[in-house]
Design a protein that fits this description.
The protein has 156 residues and is an alpha+beta fold. It is 44% helix and 23% strand.
């Protein structure tokens, strides 16, 4: 707990929390398949900026996502957890891949729209014969789509 609080203090000191989002697609073996961060603060989010804390929070929420997944037929699970100022929203695909969104502002409509568009993009990625399911997504096209939808629904 001390380590987590220390990481959070470090994170808050170096990064203003306003409209910050971290999106990850988690595979069947709890492995991250794709990660991206968005910020509406006007500055570019550095790719490795405190990613370890985001990964920790997202991974800690996986059990709660799995519990919610069993209790509802909906793919969009809304907010499933809260860790300090971070909310954790989730979406589960038909193949049981989990989309996790960490965010510091409530934006249910935007997050739901983002998840829907990313699900469609993910389906197209999975249908690609050169992609192996449950492996990291390294497609530049996929990354650009995620950035576009992030600006459109989350930070725009």
């Amino acid at each position: 707990t001390k380590l987590i609080n220390c990481l959070i203090h470090f994170y808050k000191r170096d990064f203003v929390m306003s409209g910050t989002y971290y999106f990850v697609i988690v595979g069947h073996n709890d492995n991250p398949l794709f990660e991206v961060e968005f910020s509406s603060s006007g500055r570019e989010v550095r790719k490795d900026d405190h990613r370890h804390l985001n990964q920790f929070i997202a991974h800690a929420a996986l059990d709660l996502v799995d519990e919610h997944m069993l209790r509802t037929p909906n793919m969009y699970l809304k907010i499933v957890d809260k860790f300090n100022e971070w909310f954790v929203s989730a979406f589960v695909t038909a193949s049981r891949q989990r989309f996790i969104m960490l965010h510091d502002l409530k934006n249910e409509d935007g997050i739901k729209s983002f998840f829907s568009e990313m699900y469609e993009t993910y389906i197209k990625q999975v249908m690609n014969p050169f992609y192996s399911i449950n492996t990291p997504i390294k497609s530049v096209h996929f990354e650009k789509k995620a950035q576009f939808y992030g600006r459109k629904f989350l930070t725009g």
